[in-house]
Amino acid sequence: MDSSDVTLERIRTFVRVAERGSLSAVAREFGIGQSTVTRHLRELEEAVGVPLLSRTTRRVALTDEGSRYYANSVQVLRLVEQAGDEARGTRGAPAGTIRISCTAAFGVLHVSRLIFAFQDRYPDIGVDLSLTDERVDLVREGVDIALRLGPLTDSSMKLRALGQSRRLLVASPDYLAARGTPVAPQDLLGHEGIRMSNVAGSDMLALRGPSGENHAVPFDGRFRVDHGLAAREAIVAGRGIAPTHQWLVDDLLTAGKLEVILADYSLPPVPLSMLIVPERAGVARVRLLVDFLVEQIGGIPGIEKPQPKR
Predict the structure, then answer these.
(1) Which of these, 48, 84, 126, 158, could form a disulfide with 276 (CB 3.0-4.6 Å)?
(2) Which domain of life is it from (predicted)?
(3) Fold match between 93-165+270-304 and 167-260?
(4) Following DSSP, what letter does each residue of 203-268 receive, concatenated?
């Protein structure tokens, strides 16, 4: 084989295997057999003339030559995709697929609807939405954009601050009628709490009072859960009091199915951020979705947009 056998198909396969570290995972992603993935890699290595990957029974890793080839291959694929975007742009029809990862409950209740509106505006753009509260490796999973609640530490991604998510203490009218309505933070000690088991520090409520004083109140109950939608159901069912994002329950508050308690006391807000894979930030359709989400997410109840820097 010679350099003419270095095809984009083989380069794409190599890049995804390098990122995912698994031939079988890439085969599933591309909808092809694992033997086809193996053949693409073998043919590419024969064309290049050096081993690009080392394989063991447990993992696939880049060789030194493979690491250099991977970095250049990513740039080649990005340029090819951008060239296609520019060509399609002359016809005014952005196309292709965007992969987005989003915190589960936020995605179900709000982001999915925003994506519907985005696709109505750009009907040739496909969106693959993955809903998870796990912090996934965006490059490894082939994700372009991620929406995440909470502090972030991944400095390798481009970050856009979308705002702060306001939190409230809420309960159902039936629960409050049966157990009484707390009027001060210490009153919470005699109540059932609905806790998020996947949130660090959920056994303690930090409240700021109307005069700026801080209160730390132990918080526990018989029901703990790791998904926001299940917590929402538990609150409506009268299982207890819960600290929750306003966007999770705003419709229930409006309908009178839930009530805010200790309204003069505030819970710390949670940052909402967008992560963008740097190599994907220049792709036209990704830029369109990023700009659309930045514009629209500020209209979601309880999301306070970041203040412009002075």
Answers:
(1) 158
(2) Bacteria
(3) yes
(4) TEEEEE-TTS-EEEEE---SEEES-HHHHHHHHHTT--BEEEEHHHHHHHHHTTSSEE-STTSBPP
93-165+270-304 is a CATH 3.40.190.10 domain:
yes
Beta carbons within 10 angstroms of residue 37's beta carbon: 23
**Residue 80, both tokens:** 């090819």
The structural domains of the chain, with segments of one domain joined by +, span 8-85, 93-165+270-304, 167-260
Average pLDDT estimate for 56-76: 85
Distance CA 189, CA 242 (A): 13
Find out whether 209 and 264 touch, Cβ atoms under 8 Å: yes
pTM for this model (two decimals): 0.78
Contact 152, 228 (CB under 8 A): no
Backbone Cα Rg of the chain: 24
Angle between helices 112-121 and 284-297 (to 10 degrees): 130
Query: Could you give the CA distance from residue 238 to residue 233 in angstroms, rounded to a whole number?
Result: 9
Residue from 186, 202, 293 nearest 244 by CA = 202
The percentage of the chain sitting over the pLDDT mark of 70, rounded to a whole number, equals 94
In this structure, what token pair is assigned to residue 89? 């742009």
Q: Which CATH class is domain 8-85?
A: mainly alpha
- Location of structure tokens 């502090």: 151
* Cα gap 263→101, rounded to integer Å: 33
Contact (CB, 8 A) for 105 and 246: no
